[in-house]
Amino acid sequence: MRLDKWLANMGLGSRKEVKKLLKTGMVNVDGEVKKDGKVQVDPSQHTVTVNGMEVEFKKHIYLMMNKPPGVISATEDVQEETVVDLLEAEDVIFEPFPVGRLDKDTEGLLILTNDGQLSHQLLSPKKHIPKTYYAKIAGTVTEDDVEAFRKGVILDDGYETKPAELTILHAGEQSEIELIITEGKFHQVKRMFRAVGKQVTYLKRIKMGDLALDEALELGEYRELTDGEVAVLQSSAPTF
Ligand code: URA
């Protein structure tokens, strides 16, 4: 990887700022001053220092995206725009992938990472990681639906869902609800409502485990998780 790109990724500034930094002669690779950002480095093999301080090699990247409708939760596709297409090149080089899927028309919290272990933990059916959705439903959602979801409903393929917590935010011609499910079957929320004769008209994931979507992120925007947020995710899916 190019030295300037890597330094920018490690948070040492924009590509422009990194260029200036390199010019100062403060950047060393394996003890040698490097002023040319085009130099190739393998950060897992080389020791890079700035002003005598070692720059720590970042192996994993953790991103939170507010997924917009119209893009698919995949890394690449020949026809469709993917969530990875929305990332900056400096993040794509870490080869992040989405943790689980949101439907093309679903919005909201999507984690992208290259940490296969964390992804596996979060998706493991054994872990029962709660996922919270906000949805708009055509028709009136009732206490009977709340009770049916609490007990489990039978989906179109005969599968009986695990208990889910349905909260009615507004009941009317167009109802608004929050739903917490602990599994991730294909189109699960939409199919659960279909099982009680209703249709989801808008769906947004707002929480995964204990990590909530940063509402400051506009649709299609994303940011790195803070160390604290990564810890929150990890504790949502402990390895023990
Ligand atoms: N359930 C759905 O039906 N769709 C999603 O995208 C996520 C959960």
TrEMBL record:
Pfam families: PseudoU_synth_2, S4
GO cellular component, one term: cytosol
Keyword vocabulary terms for this entry: Isomerase, RNA-binding
Record has Isomerase as a keyword: yes
Superkingdom as given in the UniProt entry: Bacteria
Gene Ontology MF: a single term: RNA binding
Alphabetical list of InterPro entries matching this protein: PsdUridine_s_RsuA/RluB/E/F_cat, PsdUridine_synth_cat_dom_sf, PsdUridine_synth_RsuA/RluA, PsdUridine_synth_RsuA/RluB/E/F, PsdUridine_synth_RsuA/RluB_CS, RsuA_PseudoU_synthase, S4_RNA-bd, S4_RNA-bd_sf
Domain annotation RNA-binding S4: ranges: 1-61
Source species of the chain: Bacillus taeanensis
Record GO biological process: enzyme-directed rRNA pseudouridine synthesis
Keyword 4Fe-4S: no
SUPFAM superfamilies listed in its UniProt record: Alpha-L RNA-binding motif, Pseudouridine synthase
Protein name per Swiss-Prot or TrEMBL: Pseudouridine synthase
Record-stated family: Belongs to the pseudouridine synthase RsuA family.
EC number(s) given by UniProt: 5.4.99.-
Chain segments annotated as transmembrane: none
Enzyme class: isomerase
